[in-house]
Design brief:
Length: about 500
Protein backbone atom coordinates (compact mmCIF):
# COMPACT_ATOMS: atom_id res chain seq x y z
CA UNK A 1 0.00 0.00 0.00
CA UNK A 2 1.47 3.34 -1.06
CA UNK A 3 1.10 6.34 1.19
CA UNK A 4 1.27 9.98 0.13
CA UNK A 5 0.29 13.40 1.43
CA UNK A 6 -3.34 14.54 1.60
CA UNK A 7 -2.09 17.62 -0.29
CA UNK A 8 -0.06 16.09 -3.13
CA UNK A 9 1.08 12.83 -4.69
CA UNK A 10 4.67 13.93 -5.24
CA UNK A 11 6.22 11.69 -2.61
CA UNK A 12 5.10 8.07 -2.39
CA UNK A 13 6.27 5.82 0.42
CA UNK A 14 5.44 2.62 2.22
CA UNK A 15 3.80 2.43 5.63
CA UNK A 16 7.13 2.07 7.47
CA UNK A 17 8.34 5.42 6.16
CA UNK A 18 4.98 6.97 6.95
CA UNK A 19 5.22 5.72 10.53
CA UNK A 20 8.76 7.09 10.92
CA UNK A 21 8.06 10.47 9.34
CA UNK A 22 4.69 11.12 11.02
CA UNK A 23 3.88 14.25 9.03
CA UNK A 24 4.49 14.88 5.30
CA UNK A 25 7.05 17.54 4.32
CA UNK A 26 4.27 19.69 2.75
CA UNK A 27 2.33 19.74 6.02
CA UNK A 28 -0.22 17.17 4.84
CA UNK A 29 -1.08 13.84 6.46
CA UNK A 30 -0.20 10.41 5.11
CA UNK A 31 -3.10 8.68 3.32
CA UNK A 32 -3.47 5.88 0.82
CA UNK A 33 -5.89 5.76 -2.13
CA UNK A 34 -5.75 1.99 -2.03
CA UNK A 35 -7.69 1.71 1.22
CA UNK A 36 -10.83 2.51 -0.81
CA UNK A 37 -10.40 -0.75 -2.70
CA UNK A 38 -8.99 -2.80 0.18
CA UNK A 39 -11.03 -5.13 2.32
CA UNK A 40 -10.71 -7.56 5.18
CA UNK A 41 -12.86 -10.68 5.51
CA UNK A 42 -14.75 -9.32 8.52
CA UNK A 43 -17.03 -12.29 8.96
CA UNK A 44 -14.07 -14.59 9.45
CA UNK A 45 -12.83 -12.34 12.28
CA UNK A 46 -15.93 -12.88 14.39
CA UNK A 47 -14.37 -15.77 16.29
CA UNK A 48 -10.81 -14.46 16.36
CA UNK A 49 -8.85 -12.95 19.25
CA UNK A 50 -8.02 -9.23 19.51
CA UNK A 51 -4.44 -9.97 18.44
CA UNK A 52 -5.59 -11.97 15.44
CA UNK A 53 -7.80 -9.07 14.35
CA UNK A 54 -4.82 -6.72 14.67
CA UNK A 55 -2.83 -9.02 12.44
CA UNK A 56 -5.54 -9.26 9.76
CA UNK A 57 -5.96 -5.47 9.58
CA UNK A 58 -2.26 -4.59 9.74
CA UNK A 59 -1.52 -7.11 7.01
CA UNK A 60 -3.63 -4.95 4.69
CA UNK A 61 -2.84 -1.43 5.90
CA UNK A 62 0.82 -1.88 6.85
CA UNK A 63 1.77 -4.32 4.14
CA UNK A 64 5.50 -3.59 3.99
CA UNK A 65 6.01 -5.09 7.46
CA UNK A 66 6.91 -8.77 7.29
CA UNK A 67 4.77 -11.37 9.05
CA UNK A 68 7.53 -11.78 11.57
CA UNK A 69 7.72 -8.06 12.27
CA UNK A 70 3.95 -7.79 12.69
CA UNK A 71 3.90 -10.73 15.07
CA UNK A 72 6.76 -9.21 17.08
CA UNK A 73 4.92 -5.87 17.33
CA UNK A 74 1.64 -7.49 18.33
CA UNK A 75 3.25 -9.73 20.94
CA UNK A 76 4.89 -6.74 22.66
CA UNK A 77 2.14 -4.14 22.44
CA UNK A 78 -0.54 -5.20 24.89
CA UNK A 79 0.47 -8.29 26.83
CA UNK A 80 0.57 -7.78 30.59
CA UNK A 81 -0.32 -4.09 30.32
CA UNK A 82 -4.12 -4.22 30.63
CA UNK A 83 -6.24 -4.65 33.73
CA UNK A 84 -9.01 -6.66 32.07
CA UNK A 85 -8.86 -9.99 30.27
CA UNK A 86 -10.57 -8.51 27.20
CA UNK A 87 -8.48 -5.50 26.22
CA UNK A 88 -11.61 -3.55 25.31
CA UNK A 89 -14.70 -5.02 27.00
CA UNK A 90 -18.16 -4.10 25.72
CA UNK A 91 -20.71 -3.65 28.51
CA UNK A 92 -24.31 -2.51 28.71
CA UNK A 93 -25.54 0.98 29.58
CA UNK A 94 -29.34 1.17 29.45
CA UNK A 95 -30.35 -0.02 25.99
CA UNK A 96 -26.93 0.94 24.59
CA UNK A 97 -23.40 -0.41 24.87
CA UNK A 98 -20.14 1.02 26.19
CA UNK A 99 -16.91 0.09 24.45
CA UNK A 100 -14.47 0.46 27.33
CA UNK A 101 -11.17 1.72 25.95
CA UNK A 102 -9.61 2.70 29.26
CA UNK A 103 -8.17 -0.44 30.81
CA UNK A 104 -4.61 0.15 29.61
CA UNK A 105 -1.58 1.43 31.53
CA UNK A 106 -2.77 5.06 31.81
CA UNK A 107 -6.53 4.43 32.04
CA UNK A 108 -7.37 6.29 28.81
CA UNK A 109 -8.03 5.32 25.21
CA UNK A 110 -4.76 6.81 23.90
CA UNK A 111 -3.09 3.70 25.31
CA UNK A 112 -4.74 1.62 22.57
CA UNK A 113 -2.57 3.37 19.98
CA UNK A 114 0.44 4.36 22.05
CA UNK A 115 1.12 0.77 23.13
CA UNK A 116 1.52 -0.14 19.45
CA UNK A 117 3.16 2.89 17.81
CA UNK A 118 6.61 2.37 19.44
CA UNK A 119 6.69 -1.26 18.27
CA UNK A 120 5.84 -0.21 14.72
CA UNK A 121 8.48 2.52 14.87
CA UNK A 122 11.24 0.29 16.15
CA UNK A 123 10.63 -2.22 13.34
CA UNK A 124 10.68 0.59 10.76
CA UNK A 125 14.14 1.82 11.80
CA UNK A 126 17.11 0.94 9.66
CA UNK A 127 20.04 1.24 12.05
CA UNK A 128 19.45 4.79 13.23
CA UNK A 129 18.08 5.79 16.61
CA UNK A 130 15.15 8.02 17.39
CA UNK A 131 14.34 10.52 20.10
CA UNK A 132 10.66 11.32 20.50
CA UNK A 133 9.98 14.85 21.74
CA UNK A 134 6.52 15.58 23.10
CA UNK A 135 4.91 18.56 24.75
CA UNK A 136 1.90 17.71 26.88
CA UNK A 137 -0.75 19.54 28.83
CA UNK A 138 -1.07 16.43 30.95
CA UNK A 139 -2.63 13.29 29.54
CA UNK A 140 -0.88 12.39 26.31
CA UNK A 141 2.52 12.70 27.97
CA UNK A 142 1.94 9.80 30.33
CA UNK A 143 0.41 7.57 27.65
CA UNK A 144 3.44 8.24 25.43
CA UNK A 145 5.93 7.64 28.26
CA UNK A 146 4.26 4.37 29.04
CA UNK A 147 4.04 3.26 25.41
CA UNK A 148 7.68 4.02 24.66
CA UNK A 149 9.01 2.60 27.91
CA UNK A 150 12.00 0.40 27.00
CA UNK A 151 11.24 0.50 23.24
CA UNK A 152 14.22 -0.66 21.17
CA UNK A 153 16.46 2.13 19.82
CA UNK A 154 13.94 4.82 20.75
CA UNK A 155 14.10 7.35 23.56
CA UNK A 156 11.37 9.74 24.67
CA UNK A 157 11.50 13.19 26.24
CA UNK A 158 8.31 14.76 27.57
CA UNK A 159 7.90 18.43 28.50
CA UNK A 160 5.01 19.56 30.64
CA UNK A 161 4.18 22.99 32.13
CA UNK A 162 5.55 23.24 35.68
CA UNK A 163 2.79 23.52 38.29
CA UNK A 164 0.05 23.50 35.65
CA UNK A 165 -0.95 19.84 35.56
CA UNK A 166 -3.15 18.05 38.11
CA UNK A 167 -1.52 16.31 41.07
CA UNK A 168 -2.35 12.93 39.57
CA UNK A 169 -0.98 13.89 36.13
CA UNK A 170 2.20 15.15 37.83
CA UNK A 171 2.67 11.83 39.63
CA UNK A 172 1.94 9.83 36.48
CA UNK A 173 4.80 11.59 34.70
CA UNK A 174 7.25 12.04 37.58
CA UNK A 175 7.13 8.32 38.43
CA UNK A 176 7.45 7.08 34.82
CA UNK A 177 9.74 4.08 34.55
CA UNK A 178 12.06 2.89 31.79
CA UNK A 179 15.73 3.39 30.96
CA UNK A 180 14.89 5.44 27.86
CA UNK A 181 12.37 7.93 29.25
CA UNK A 182 13.01 11.55 30.22
CA UNK A 183 10.69 14.14 31.70
CA UNK A 184 11.14 17.86 32.26
CA UNK A 185 8.85 20.39 33.88
CA UNK A 186 9.10 23.69 32.01
CA UNK A 187 8.75 27.08 33.70
CA UNK A 188 6.02 28.24 31.33
CA UNK A 189 2.60 27.17 30.06
CA UNK A 190 1.59 24.43 27.62
CA UNK A 191 1.98 26.74 24.61
CA UNK A 192 5.55 27.51 25.69
CA UNK A 193 6.26 23.77 25.84
CA UNK A 194 4.77 23.21 22.41
CA UNK A 195 6.55 26.18 20.84
CA UNK A 196 9.79 25.05 22.48
CA UNK A 197 9.50 21.55 21.02
CA UNK A 198 8.68 22.93 17.56
CA UNK A 199 11.74 25.15 17.78
CA UNK A 200 13.97 22.19 18.60
CA UNK A 201 12.56 20.33 15.58
CA UNK A 202 13.03 23.39 13.38
CA UNK A 203 16.57 24.30 14.36
CA UNK A 204 18.31 21.17 15.62
CA UNK A 205 17.07 18.18 13.63
CA UNK A 206 20.01 18.14 11.24
CA UNK A 207 22.69 18.89 13.80
CA UNK A 208 21.49 16.08 16.05
CA UNK A 209 21.28 13.66 13.14
CA UNK A 210 24.86 14.45 12.07
CA UNK A 211 26.39 14.49 15.50
CA UNK A 212 24.60 11.55 17.17
CA UNK A 213 22.90 9.63 14.32
CA UNK A 214 19.64 10.25 16.13
CA UNK A 215 16.45 11.33 14.31
CA UNK A 216 13.98 13.52 16.13
CA UNK A 217 10.37 12.43 15.86
CA UNK A 218 7.01 12.96 17.51
CA UNK A 219 4.22 10.69 18.63
CA UNK A 220 1.25 12.90 17.89
CA UNK A 221 -2.12 11.67 16.81
CA UNK A 222 -1.71 12.25 13.08
CA UNK A 223 0.81 9.40 12.79
CA UNK A 224 -0.44 6.46 10.71
CA UNK A 225 1.00 4.22 13.41
CA UNK A 226 -1.45 5.70 15.90
CA UNK A 227 -4.44 5.69 13.60
CA UNK A 228 -4.30 2.10 12.40
CA UNK A 229 -4.31 0.40 15.85
CA UNK A 230 -7.57 2.25 16.58
CA UNK A 231 -9.37 0.49 13.72
CA UNK A 232 -9.22 -2.77 15.64
CA UNK A 233 -11.58 -2.06 18.52
CA UNK A 234 -14.43 -1.11 16.19
CA UNK A 235 -14.24 -4.65 14.81
CA UNK A 236 -13.66 -6.13 18.27
CA UNK A 237 -16.82 -4.44 19.64
CA UNK A 238 -18.85 -5.76 16.72
CA UNK A 239 -17.43 -9.23 17.30
CA UNK A 240 -18.29 -9.21 20.99
CA UNK A 241 -21.90 -8.24 20.27
CA UNK A 242 -22.24 -10.94 17.60
CA UNK A 243 -20.75 -13.49 19.98
CA UNK A 244 -23.24 -12.80 22.74
CA UNK A 245 -26.17 -12.76 20.32
CA UNK A 246 -26.97 -9.04 20.72
CA UNK A 247 -26.68 -8.62 16.92
CA UNK A 248 -26.40 -10.95 13.94
CA UNK A 249 -23.51 -10.61 11.53
CA UNK A 250 -24.51 -8.03 8.92
CA UNK A 251 -26.62 -5.86 11.27
CA UNK A 252 -25.49 -2.26 11.28
CA UNK A 253 -24.07 -0.68 14.42
CA UNK A 254 -23.87 3.04 15.16
CA UNK A 255 -20.74 4.22 16.97
CA UNK A 256 -20.87 7.40 19.03
CA UNK A 257 -17.40 8.83 19.55
CA UNK A 258 -16.20 11.57 21.94
CA UNK A 259 -14.20 13.59 19.45
CA UNK A 260 -11.37 16.11 19.56
CA UNK A 261 -8.67 15.63 16.95
CA UNK A 262 -10.89 13.28 14.86
CA UNK A 263 -8.40 10.39 15.10
CA UNK A 264 -10.61 7.97 16.97
CA UNK A 265 -13.68 8.40 14.76
CA UNK A 266 -11.61 8.37 11.56
CA UNK A 267 -10.42 4.90 12.55
CA UNK A 268 -14.10 3.93 12.58
CA UNK A 269 -14.37 5.14 8.99
CA UNK A 270 -11.37 3.00 8.07
CA UNK A 271 -13.09 -0.01 9.67
CA UNK A 272 -16.18 0.75 7.56
CA UNK A 273 -14.08 1.04 4.39
CA UNK A 274 -12.53 -2.34 5.15
CA UNK A 275 -15.99 -3.91 5.26
CA UNK A 276 -17.33 -3.65 8.83
CA UNK A 277 -21.15 -3.20 8.84
CA UNK A 278 -21.11 0.31 10.32
CA UNK A 279 -24.33 2.37 10.35
CA UNK A 280 -23.63 5.97 11.34
CA UNK A 281 -20.45 7.29 12.87
CA UNK A 282 -21.57 9.96 15.29
CA UNK A 283 -19.26 12.79 16.31
CA UNK A 284 -19.84 13.90 19.90
CA UNK A 285 -18.25 17.24 20.82
CA UNK A 286 -18.14 19.29 23.97
CA UNK A 287 -18.72 23.05 24.04
CA UNK A 288 -15.84 23.52 21.59
CA UNK A 289 -18.28 22.34 18.95
CA UNK A 290 -16.43 23.45 15.83
CA UNK A 291 -16.88 19.99 14.28
CA UNK A 292 -20.58 19.81 15.03
CA UNK A 293 -21.09 23.18 13.34
CA UNK A 294 -19.03 21.98 10.39
CA UNK A 295 -21.08 18.82 9.94
CA UNK A 296 -24.29 20.85 10.15
CA UNK A 297 -23.33 23.69 7.78
CA UNK A 298 -20.30 22.67 5.69
CA UNK A 299 -18.37 25.62 7.11
CA UNK A 300 -15.39 24.97 9.37
CA UNK A 301 -14.62 28.10 11.36
CA UNK A 302 -12.06 28.16 14.15
CA UNK A 303 -12.50 31.88 14.75
CA UNK A 304 -14.28 31.49 18.05
CA UNK A 305 -13.53 31.46 21.76
CA UNK A 306 -11.62 28.51 23.14
CA UNK A 307 -13.61 27.14 26.06
CA UNK A 308 -12.06 25.22 28.95
CA UNK A 309 -14.38 22.32 29.72
CA UNK A 310 -14.46 19.31 32.05
CA UNK A 311 -13.52 17.14 29.05
CA UNK A 312 -10.10 18.74 28.36
CA UNK A 313 -8.91 16.13 25.85
CA UNK A 314 -11.63 17.38 23.50
CA UNK A 315 -10.81 21.07 23.96
CA UNK A 316 -9.60 21.56 20.41
CA UNK A 317 -10.36 24.09 17.68
CA UNK A 318 -8.26 22.60 14.88
CA UNK A 319 -9.15 18.97 14.43
CA UNK A 320 -6.13 17.75 12.51
CA UNK A 321 -7.27 14.30 11.38
CA UNK A 322 -10.32 15.82 9.68
CA UNK A 323 -7.97 16.57 6.78
CA UNK A 324 -7.81 12.86 6.01
CA UNK A 325 -11.60 12.63 5.92
CA UNK A 326 -11.78 15.64 3.59
CA UNK A 327 -9.38 13.80 1.31
CA UNK A 328 -11.62 10.73 1.08
CA UNK A 329 -14.87 12.70 0.94
CA UNK A 330 -13.55 14.72 -2.00
CA UNK A 331 -12.76 11.57 -4.01
CA UNK A 332 -9.02 11.70 -3.15
CA UNK A 333 -8.56 15.21 -4.57
CA UNK A 334 -5.24 16.47 -3.18
CA UNK A 335 -5.45 19.89 -4.80
CA UNK A 336 -8.89 20.44 -3.34
CA UNK A 337 -7.69 19.50 0.18
CA UNK A 338 -4.60 21.70 -0.17
CA UNK A 339 -6.91 24.60 -1.03
CA UNK A 340 -9.10 24.03 2.02
CA UNK A 341 -6.06 23.85 4.29
CA UNK A 342 -4.70 27.05 2.77
CA UNK A 343 -8.01 28.76 3.61
CA UNK A 344 -7.83 27.37 7.15
CA UNK A 345 -4.30 28.71 7.55
CA UNK A 346 -4.98 32.12 6.11
CA UNK A 347 -8.55 32.83 7.18
CA UNK A 348 -9.15 30.33 9.96
CA UNK A 349 -12.09 28.90 8.03
CA UNK A 350 -13.06 26.91 4.96
CA UNK A 351 -16.26 25.77 3.31
CA UNK A 352 -16.69 22.45 1.49
CA UNK A 353 -18.58 22.07 -1.76
CA UNK A 354 -22.01 20.35 -1.77
CA UNK A 355 -20.77 16.95 -3.10
CA UNK A 356 -18.23 16.74 -0.30
CA UNK A 357 -20.76 17.84 2.30
CA UNK A 358 -23.25 15.19 1.13
CA UNK A 359 -20.60 12.49 1.32
CA UNK A 360 -19.69 13.52 4.87
CA UNK A 361 -23.35 13.52 5.92
CA UNK A 362 -23.77 10.05 4.46
CA UNK A 363 -21.13 8.74 6.86
CA UNK A 364 -21.42 11.00 9.92
CA UNK A 365 -23.94 12.53 12.22
CA UNK A 366 -23.12 14.79 15.14
CA UNK A 367 -24.14 16.46 18.37
CA UNK A 368 -22.58 18.12 21.38
CA UNK A 369 -22.94 18.55 25.12
CA UNK A 370 -22.36 21.70 27.13
CA UNK A 371 -20.47 21.46 30.43
CA UNK A 372 -23.74 21.46 32.32
CA UNK A 373 -25.20 18.77 30.04
CA UNK A 374 -22.09 16.60 30.49
CA UNK A 375 -22.50 16.78 34.26
CA UNK A 376 -26.18 15.90 33.97
CA UNK A 377 -25.28 12.98 31.71
CA UNK A 378 -22.81 11.62 34.29
CA UNK A 379 -25.51 11.84 36.96
CA UNK A 380 -28.16 10.27 34.72
CA UNK A 381 -25.90 7.38 33.67
CA UNK A 382 -25.21 6.67 37.32
CA UNK A 383 -28.68 7.15 38.73
CA UNK A 384 -30.69 5.52 35.94
CA UNK A 385 -28.33 3.09 34.24
CA UNK A 386 -26.08 2.39 37.24
CA UNK A 387 -22.95 3.16 35.26
CA UNK A 388 -20.09 5.46 36.19
CA UNK A 389 -18.73 7.36 33.17
CA UNK A 390 -16.13 10.10 32.70
CA UNK A 391 -16.86 13.59 31.28
CA UNK A 392 -15.64 12.72 27.74
CA UNK A 393 -17.80 9.62 27.55
CA UNK A 394 -20.65 11.69 29.01
CA UNK A 395 -20.70 13.91 25.90
CA UNK A 396 -21.20 10.83 23.74
CA UNK A 397 -23.82 9.40 26.10
CA UNK A 398 -25.83 12.63 25.86
CA UNK A 399 -25.58 12.71 22.05
CA UNK A 400 -26.49 9.01 21.76
CA UNK A 401 -29.74 9.68 23.63
CA UNK A 402 -30.64 12.34 21.06
CA UNK A 403 -29.72 10.50 17.89
CA UNK A 404 -31.46 7.18 17.48
CA UNK A 405 -31.34 5.75 13.97
CA UNK A 406 -32.86 2.40 14.92
CA UNK A 407 -29.47 0.67 14.88
CA UNK A 408 -27.93 -0.59 18.12
CA UNK A 409 -25.63 2.05 19.61
CA UNK A 410 -22.05 1.62 20.82
CA UNK A 411 -20.64 4.52 22.83
CA UNK A 412 -16.86 4.68 22.86
CA UNK A 413 -15.80 5.20 26.46
CA UNK A 414 -12.46 6.97 26.31
CA UNK A 415 -11.29 7.45 29.89
CA UNK A 416 -11.67 5.94 33.32
CA UNK A 417 -13.97 8.11 35.46
CA UNK A 418 -11.24 7.95 38.12
CA UNK A 419 -8.98 10.06 35.90
CA UNK A 420 -11.56 12.81 36.29
CA UNK A 421 -12.68 11.86 39.77
CA UNK A 422 -13.48 15.37 41.01
CA UNK A 423 -15.84 16.21 38.15
CA UNK A 424 -17.39 12.76 38.19
CA UNK A 425 -17.92 12.93 41.94
CA UNK A 426 -19.40 16.42 41.99
CA UNK A 427 -21.69 15.69 39.04
CA UNK A 428 -23.33 12.86 40.95
CA UNK A 429 -22.97 13.70 44.63
CA UNK A 430 -22.26 17.45 44.82
CA UNK A 431 -19.34 18.99 46.71
CA UNK A 432 -17.11 16.64 48.69
CA UNK A 433 -17.00 17.30 52.42
CA UNK A 434 -13.68 18.89 53.37
CA UNK A 435 -13.08 19.58 49.68
CA UNK A 436 -10.85 22.62 50.33
CA UNK A 437 -7.98 20.30 51.23
CA UNK A 438 -8.93 17.32 49.02
CA UNK A 439 -6.32 16.11 46.53
CA UNK A 440 -6.80 13.83 43.53
CA UNK A 441 -6.56 10.71 45.68
CA UNK A 442 -9.23 11.95 48.09
CA UNK A 443 -11.65 12.34 45.17
CA UNK A 444 -10.76 8.92 43.75
CA UNK A 445 -11.28 7.29 47.13
CA UNK A 446 -14.56 9.09 47.78
CA UNK A 447 -15.83 8.19 44.31
CA UNK A 448 -14.90 4.57 44.83
CA UNK A 449 -16.49 4.43 48.30
CA UNK A 450 -19.79 5.91 47.10
CA UNK A 451 -20.11 3.94 43.86
CA UNK A 452 -18.48 0.65 44.78
CA UNK A 453 -16.27 0.87 41.66
CA UNK A 454 -12.61 -0.06 41.96
CA UNK A 455 -9.87 2.52 41.40
CA UNK A 456 -7.63 1.29 38.53
CA UNK A 457 -4.44 -0.18 39.95
CA UNK A 458 -2.24 2.09 37.82
CA UNK A 459 -3.82 5.16 39.42
CA UNK A 460 -4.04 3.80 42.97
CA UNK A 461 -0.39 2.74 42.98
CA UNK A 462 0.84 6.26 42.17
CA UNK A 463 0.62 7.04 45.86
CA UNK A 464 3.55 4.83 46.70
CA UNK A 465 5.68 5.01 43.55
CA UNK A 466 9.15 6.51 43.59
CA UNK A 467 9.55 10.02 42.10
CA UNK A 468 12.16 9.50 39.39
CA UNK A 469 12.00 12.73 37.39
CA UNK A 470 12.70 16.01 39.17
CA UNK A 471 14.16 18.22 36.44
CA UNK A 472 12.70 21.70 36.09
CA UNK A 473 13.98 23.78 33.16
CA UNK A 474 13.47 27.27 31.76
CA UNK A 475 11.92 27.64 28.31
CA UNK A 476 15.40 28.52 27.05
CA UNK A 477 16.77 25.34 28.59
CA UNK A 478 14.52 22.90 26.74
CA UNK A 479 16.95 22.27 23.89
CA UNK A 480 19.90 21.63 26.24
CA UNK A 481 17.76 19.18 28.14
CA UNK A 482 16.98 17.27 24.93
CA UNK A 483 20.68 17.12 24.03
CA UNK A 484 21.56 15.87 27.50
CA UNK A 485 18.96 13.10 27.12
CA UNK A 486 20.31 12.15 23.70
CA UNK A 487 23.87 11.99 25.00
CA UNK A 488 22.54 9.74 27.78
C1 LIG B 1 -7.85 12.23 23.00
C2 LIG B 1 -9.14 11.95 23.67
C3 LIG B 1 -10.38 12.09 23.02
C4 LIG B 1 -10.49 12.58 21.59
O1 LIG B 1 -9.98 11.68 20.65
P1 LIG B 1 -9.58 12.20 19.18
O2 LIG B 1 -8.95 11.05 18.53
O3 LIG B 1 -8.60 13.33 19.43
O4 LIG B 1 -10.81 12.68 18.53
C5 LIG B 1 -11.53 11.78 23.72
N1 LIG B 1 -11.49 11.38 25.01
C6 LIG B 1 -10.33 11.25 25.68
C7 LIG B 1 -10.35 10.82 27.10
C8 LIG B 1 -9.12 11.51 25.04
O5 LIG B 1 -7.97 11.39 25.73
Amino acid sequence: MQYHSTRSRQVLCGSKDAVLKGLCPDGGLFVSDEILKASVDMKSLMDKSYEEIVYAVFKVLLDDYTDEELKYCISRAYKGKFETEDLTPVTGIGDKYLLELYHGPTSAFKDMALCMLPQLMSKALKGEKVMILTATSGDTGKAALSGFQDAENIGITVYYPYGKVSDIQYLQMATAEGGNVHVAAVRGNFDDCQTGVKKIFGTMTEEIKNKYNVSLSSANSINVGRLVPQVIYYIEAYKQLVKRGAISYGDKLDYIVPTGNFGDILAGYYAKLLGLPVGKLIVASNENNVLTDFLKTGVYDKNRDFIKTISPSMDILVSSNLERMLFYASGCDCDYVAGLMKDLNEKGRFEVKPEVFDKLREVFDCGYATNEESKQAIAKAFNEDHRLIDPHTACAYKVAEELHTGNKQVILSTASPFKFAKDAYESIFGALEGSASADGFAYMEALSAKTGEKIPEALASLKTKEIRHKDVVDIDGMADFAVKCIEG
